[in-house]
Design goal:
This protein has 279 residues and is of the alpha/beta class. The protein is built from 8 helices and 8 strands; from the N terminus they run E-H-E-H-E-H-E-H-E-H-E-H-H-E-H-E. 36% of the residues lie in helices and 14% in strands.
Length: 279
């Protein structure tokens, strides 16, 4: 049990960001990791030129890193946005334009998890209208994910840092997961359980794990306070990951934390080198 018993991947959108995108897979590999994940890398466009998609695929392949998670287009992230799929108008259109692009790229690199961030509440927009739009777009995304053998992830964020994001408790995200699965009949919508966000919401993490491990498709971690590496805060992350395993979760654990003032390569001291390569 403990950290060496997990399958970790590195989020290259929060770690190694001191390097250009195409150099990050090799940097993760040099640090001993064989699996990575990404937020949508092209925040300005849902439909980047094929040459840029090909270049990212080559960087992943050349480094020997497996992409295990990818966000759909989510607006300005990092930045003020928290997704696009429930935002009426241009942002919803951008999300739709991205669905097949992201799914096809995921298929090209063997990535089997696609994360669809819900999006913020918009001033002047009816929340019920936003939720109806969200379900419509999530159904399209779930079908595209299923076409390429992937799951669709729905994520809870935290209210202090994302006050306009409506899915700020595990039950809210689970409700959306259930609605999408009911609408598609595919059963491939899953919960993205982020222990940092849930802890920022003040949720009982052990209880969330017990209640929702069976519906969880991906896990992400950072310590709290500070969103730093494990051991920089007070969360019992090793114990919580053991609880997830005991509850039947055997998937990936994404390292989605800030490296602090040091280079990203030095932010993994808490994890033995022998435990970094995914078996």
């Amino acid at each position: 049990m403990g950290y060496p018993d997990q399958r970790f991947d590195v989020n290259l959108s929060i770690l190694f960001t001191e390097l250009p995108l195409l150099e990050r897979p090799a940097a993760a590999a040099a640090a001993g990791f064989t699996a990575v994940e990404l937020w949508w890398p092209w925040i300005e466009t849902p439909t980047p030129p094929q040459a840029e998609l090909d270049a990212l695929k080559k960087a992943l392949d050349d480094a020997g890193t497996q992409l295990v998670g990818l966000n759909f287009y989510a607006g300005q992230l990092p930045g003020p946005d928290r997704g696009a799929l429930s935002v009426p108008g241009e942002e919803s259109d951008r999300f739709r334009a991205n669905i097949e692009v992201a799914a096809d790229f995921a298929a090209s690199v063997g990535c089997t998890a696609l994360n669809a961030l819900y999006g913020n509440r918009v001033e002047g927009a009816d929340p019920q209208v936003q939720d109806a739009l969200a379900l419509e777009n999530l159904v399209l995304a779930a079908r595209a994910a299923d076409r390429v053998g992937a799951i669709l992830l729905v994520e809870t964020l935290n209210k202090p840092e994302s006050p306009l994001y409506p899915l700020v408790g595990a039950p809210a995200a689970i409700e959306v997961v259930d609605k999408v699965n009911a609408a598609t009949g595919l059963g491939n919508a899953k919960f993205l359980l982020d222990l940092y966000h849930l802890s920022m919401n003040g949720e009982d993490l052990s209880q969330v794990i017990k209640a929702y491990a069976a519906k969880t498709g991906h896990v992400q971690i950072a310590d709290n306070p500070g969103r730093g590496a494990p051991g920089t805060g007070s969360l019992p992350l090793e114990r919580l990951l053991d609880e997830l395993k005991d509850a039947g979760y055997t998937g990936w654990v994404g390292l989605e934390y800030k490296p602090g003032d040091r280079p990203s390569a030095e932010a993994f001291d808490w994890l033995p080198a022998s435990a970094r390569a995914a078996g």
